[in-house]
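Hi C.,

You asked whether I'd gotten around to modeling the 252-residue construct. I have! Everything is below, sequence then structure, no commentary in between.
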Amino acid sequence: MVFGLLLDFELRGAIVGFIIGCFMDTEYVFPEKKEKRDFRVSFMMLGAFVMQTPGVGSKLSSNVVRSALVNTFGETYTQRRLSFFYELLRQRIQVEAICGQIQQYASVGEKNTLLRFLFELGEQPGVNKENLHHSINYLAARIGVPFETVQQVYNTVKGKMRDQQYSEEQTYEEQAHRPEQEFNSLSSSFTTLGLASTANEKEVKRAYYRLAKKFHPDSNPQASADEKKLLESKLRLVIEAYERICEVKNWK
């Protein structure tokens, strides 16, 4: 304002000076631009970690691995990084550091993309599904993804793979009327309990009580916070598998 008065000592000068003074006194803070991060290498490293799980990587064909990589990263990137990915399988993966970065900086969509990649990579015939799911649930807990979200992603991937399998097999007459969804769901439930699909009610209950006791928090009082999260996810899988079998079999 003083600046304006010095111009012509009139009201007009005062107004101009007031505006200039406000402009000079005001500090404008530019919004900080969020850095875009590329998680593709991190995703590959966690994929290698899952493949290192006993009963998983040894059961996967090179075609399955490449297909999962292409679906997630594209043909060009996969072609450049395929040998790098196989080299990762011989390395010790620093899971804690990688998951810490993803938890802090990755978006919800990016985290879900990672889970879809891991399930698509490992959810194959012959793979030890219990070990596979334990590894993925362990990673999900470390990157801050709720168990319910993990299940939703898994169901999406499983449904997609089931549709593909049905499309390939539908030329067989016995497949035309087969309740595919119910069969696969029931079969995976028996696998979660470590049983064959021919197990009887007594065998199912015995396996359920054994695994529920094994993964219950009261049976693991010395477990760390991260270990408790993993145990909780395992216990939920066991309970859901048992309830699904009882429902389909009409066991009380």
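If it helps when you're writing up: Residues 38-165 form one domain.

Thanks,
B.
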